[in-house]
Amino acid sequence: MVDGIPLPGMKPGPDSVGAMVLPSCGGRVAAQACGFVDLGVCKVADIVKKKPLWCQDCRKLEVTISFSADHGGLIELVHTQMYAPSKLIAACDFWTLRYTCLLEDGNLVVCEESLIAGQSAYEMPTLPSFVRAEMFASGFMIRPSEEGGSMVTVVDDMKFKASAAVDGLRPLYDTSTLLAWRMTSKVLSYLRAYSKDKEETGFVSSPISTLPGLSHRLVRCFNDAVNCLSDDGWVPLSNDGLNNSVTVHIKPSPCCSGLGVNDVAAPREGIICAKAFLVLQKLSPAILMGFLRERGVAWADLDLDSGLEFPSSESFQDSLPKKKFSSVKVFQPSSEKNEAYEIVRLQKQQSAKSDVSDMEKFMLQFTSSMEDNTISAYSQILFAPIDASVTDDSPLLPSGFRVMNLDADPKSRVPSQTLDLASSLGNQPRMQSHVAYETGCALTIAFQCMFKAENRNAMTLKAHQNVQNLVDLLQKAPITLQPQPAVLISSSQFGSEVVLLVQQLVDCYRVHFGQELLPCTGGTSESLFEAFWSLQHAVVCCAWKPLPEFIFANHSALAMLECSLFALKEMSLERMFNDVCRKTDNSQLPPFLHEEGYAHLPAGVCLSSIGHPVSFERAVGWKVLTVDPNVQTAAFMFCHWAFVNGHK
Asked: What is the reported pTM?
């Protein structure tokens, strides 16, 4: 696979990632990546073999047997365990042989493949909560460069068994695209960050002390809480008399880790984890994530004295706890375009017994947007208490939400396409499929807190009640959070020029991107207009006459901009772009109108007509050909937009 025919859709040369479609292989997924890193061959080999270091989904990798082979080679028997992203999906493990060898041409190869029947593979007992997955020929080809550094080629070829408890959920890596983004490209990102750290500081700091390293710990600790595996010390508590939609586990501190299940009452201190899983049909994951980003951090504190209450009679939109929170600082690392970090200050209600030092708490908030619209892709928002005393080896207690895409109707799935994913490794935004409708989502909730002997029972009950109240609250989301139906949905309420403009806009999108902007319509101008007006993503059309002027927008765009069609012309184009883009002269035509005819815009923040900040995960722009050749027209689409914290 390394030396064979390049994968379709991949750019030639370095810095490329490809997802391979294997429709006839019964669930196999494969991906390939290639990139240059400023590290020596041996150092690269040492890092790539430590998968838990760079792959957040890898729970554990253990070399059970190793022995030397000919020509200085090394053969290892490896047991790898992968986390389950949700308890609705089983975790998986591999038993593989890994071979490391320095070839005669100076290249170093690390290749790995599952043991097959007759090679003791199926004599290995399957652990509880795990299913056995299969790895085909995979690994790394590391070529030294004459100028220093190495050219690294990564190949992953795997097969995961479906074992979901809910229809519509798929295994950990359902498609080759997911495999490429969650595993294959991650190792190159880590190698480059490691090399950059060494270049800037002259030495390599602890990989878990940097901000990306801190997020790596955060995600892995959250995965521990989601899985709650017994060999990590987690013990389930009885739910007698309580609603079974919420489960509670405790993890005694290390000094009490030898206690058995019958000694649950004995631990003097430890961790409580309350978690729940629910399926929300007919709710877009993007809409739910927007709501969680806006309000989720206010639910972060499970302390008994925090005043964190959710009365059942409370209305959904007024469901914030009585606690102030504000952003202190936002970090946006360049290595991962779909991830963001934020330090948030929580301010508690003051009481006569409260110490001033206890009045506020700082949270590290980590948000990752959905990497793909593929089924089983997920977004997450995690938060953990943090202060200056947090050390490299101190435990983090992340809580949060994981929103997984759900396929409610398997017949509606679009076959995976072979993608060029190279741009994520550089500075260019990557292309994603523009799906304007989604079928539902599966939500994982997990909250953790510390307990002591004197308050364990009270903390357990409080954690259970708080998460149960959250479940009750969020079960209303499919009805309450759905976008309000458009008031104007008939093309007869607009002139023929507007109807023609919508047709031209849709046709030009198809020409530039090779896919449909709208779901299947009835073929009439009326049905086309109605589909455009009710599109979930915000689409606004701008014409240069010669100065830019907004001429039309769909219902979602008007809601995002908080204005009417009559006030749309008063909007400024500068509000449609982030701070970097605002430095440009927007009175001039965008370059893409003269060149390719379309452009991909990275995630950013724009402002509504009344100054409210609105975040969007991605945006695209394309040229629209109209009947007037003297007027240049462009359309912009903002996907998965949401008002930023503290605003509607």
From this structure: 0.69
